[in-house]
Design a protein that fits this description.
Elements lengths: L23 H6 L48 H15 L2 H10 L9 H13 L10 H29 L12 E4 L6 H8 L6 E2 L3 H5 L3 H17 L3 H9 L10 H6 L12 H6 L13 H7 L7 H22 L4 E5 L7 H5 L7 E6 L2 H20 L7 H24 L5 E5 H4 L3 H11 L9 H12 L15 H7 L3 H6 L5 E2 L28
Parallel strand pairs: 1-3, 1-4, 2-3, 4-5, 5-6
């Protein structure tokens, strides 16, 4: 039976165990509690008083054995493309000049973390990931090579060109930003769509602006769009979006598209910036399916402080560019549901006057949907659903539990006058009324007769309801959720003085349920 520690050693050949069977070693060991594994985490879980013993009823995936499979690597075209590029540079005599640029561009690049890139590179060369054939490493290697030899060098030039041509954007004020928070699959996307219609006072980054945070590119795209509308009657847009489907970077079909829209012209979650440009995002676990990297990619706060500050400074400058180009006089608005990895806590230093809307949904509904989506996102990126790997399943569950506890801690730490809480299910019953209550509490205004006011009236008439995703207990069972995860709504509303839009649901004298406290975990070892 392979263990997680066998990261660099190939697994011995074995017959596949019957579906749901456990090895003799696992039976002898018995169930392991979340509290017992806290000492093995690279980051101690927050709020130990909320830790509950692990449910004796594991999910279907958690009960399976590790089996080695051969997955067809994605992105293999990167290798011949890079080889042909350098061959052409060598034949043309430009290779020495390009090599000199490669030697100096990291000193001017705002992207990535070079220590992390080196650590990943060494791990890829050390052997196959547990349960995978060595060829799977080619997918992660392709991503690393593409970023370091193609994307980062070119985009560093674009970034510095912005600083040269549009230096005023760095003086753009980011005033009183509004952050929409919650655990993934809590109804935040629908609320984001509604607030995005308040174009008179709010501006949010589109997925295109996150993927290409360069004013030179954005202004060029604006020019092409203007030319297409004026002279071609939208023909270019029709071909690009409707025929070639280029506005959807990972395609527009399948379960993932139904659960998580990814379209360039729509607003999206700000953590996507860190996936595209900083080599740090939970989605990268799909390319590097090892315990070490699962722990790391779910913890932004494991990065050295200098790298955390650099990544968030990059984020702020991307926001300044969008405000400079099309949002002057408006407030920056963002959905940031993956910020429980430490990004939000760190971002409070950059945005001290930020306001927060926290949407809470029952974990029994959000977690099965979220576990399914994490696997589908990984499959889009690398062609493999890592959530179906039993030897990784426990780590994903522990890290998502840590996000729950970090959310409670964050809500306890922010000024309560800048925080309001929404119940996801209650929100869909009175969209217009709840949006008005949110604005009123945060000191914002919805002008009567404005476009946003009319939009809310139309939305109220339609009274859109949330369509729940069909899930099962393959990834996580209801017993596990009930026994191990805290009740977010109860714990957050128990914070003295916290404001809830749904006042009738606020407990008169709510107190957190006392739970067993585990022994303190040792300080985490740094990733680098």
């Amino acid at each position: 039976m392979a263990t997680v520690g066998d990261a660099a050693d190939p697994l011995p050949p074995q017959r596949a165990a019957p579906r749901g069977a456990l090895s003799a070693e696992e039976k002898a060991k018995g169930p392991t509690s979340v509290r017992d594994c806290a000492t093995s985490c690279t980051e101690p879980l927050r709020h130990p008083e909320l830790t509950r013993p692990r449910s004796p009823t594991p999910s279907l995936i958690a009960s399976l054995q590790v089996k080695r499979t051969v997955a067809v690597p994605k992105h293999l075209f990167v290798y011949p493309a890079v080889a042909y590029l350098f061959y052409s540079l060598w034949r043309s005599g430009w290779l020495p000049y390009v090599a000199a640029y490669y030697a100096i561009y990291p000193f001017f690049s705002p992207f990535g973390n070079w220590g992390v890139a080196w650590r990943i590179f060494k791990r890829l060369l050390s052997g196959p990931f547990p349960g995978y054939h060595w060829s799977f490493n080619l997918s992660g290697g392709a991503l690393l090579i593409a970023k370091l030899t193609l994307m980062y060098p070119i985009e560093t030039l674009l970034w510095q060109l912005d600083n040269l041509l549009f230096p005023a954007h760095r003086q753009q004020e980011v005033r009183k930003p509004l952050f929409l928070l919650g655990q993934p699959r809590s109804g935040t996307t629908r609320f984001e769509d509604i607030l995005s219609e308040d174009k008179e006072s709010l501006v949010a980054l589109s997925l295109f602006e996150m993927r290409y945070p360069y004013l030179t590119v954005q202004y060029a795209f604006d020019g092409v769009n203007w030319f297409d509308k004026k002279f071609l009657r939208g023909a270019l847009r029709y071909v690009a979006f409707d025929v070639l489907d280029l506005n959807k970077p990972f395609g527009g079909k399948g379960d993932r598209h139904q659960m998580r829209r990814l379209q360039y012209e729509l607003t999206d979650e700000d953590d996507i910036l860190f996936l595209f440009h900083q080599m740090h995002h939970f989605q990268l676990c799909g390319m590097f399916p090892d315990e070490e990297f699962v722990r790391f990619f779910y913890h932004f706060d494991q990065l050295p402080e200098r790298d955390q500050d650099q990544a968030l400074a990059f984020h702020r400058q991307c926001v300044q560019k969008v405000l400079y180009r099309r949002g002057q006089g408006r407030n920056y608005f963002a959905k940031w549901v993956a910020g429980w990895n430490g990004q939000l806590a760190r971002a409070r230093r950059l945005y001290p006057d930020a306001q927060y809307i926290v949407i809470v949904r029952s974990a029994s509904e959000s977690l099965p949907s979220w576990f399914k989506l994490q696997g589908l996102l990984a499959k889009d990126l690398v062609g493999e659903d890592v959530m179906e790997r039993p030897h990784l399943h426990r780590f994903f569950k522990e890290e998502n539990l840590a996000w729950f506890k970090n959310e409670i801690e964050f809500c306890r730490s922010v000024p309560l006058e800048n925080l309001t809480v929404l119940d996801s299910d209650q929100f869909y019953r009175d969209i217009q009324g709840d949006v008005r209550k949110v604005y009123e509490y945060l000191g914002r205004e919805i002008a009567p007769g404005s476009d946003f006011d009319k939009f809310l009236a139309r939305t109220q008439q339609k009274q859109v309801t949330h369509r729940k995703t069909k899930t099962d207990e393959s990834h996580i069972t209801q017993a596990e959720i009930r026994d191990e995860f805290p009740d977010l709504f109860k714990e957050i509303l128990a914070i003295p003085g916290v404001h809830s839009v749904h006042a009738g649901l606020t407990p008169v004298s709510a107190k957190p349920t006392p739970l067993p406290t585990p022994s303190p975990a040792p300080s985490p070892a740094p990733f680098l």
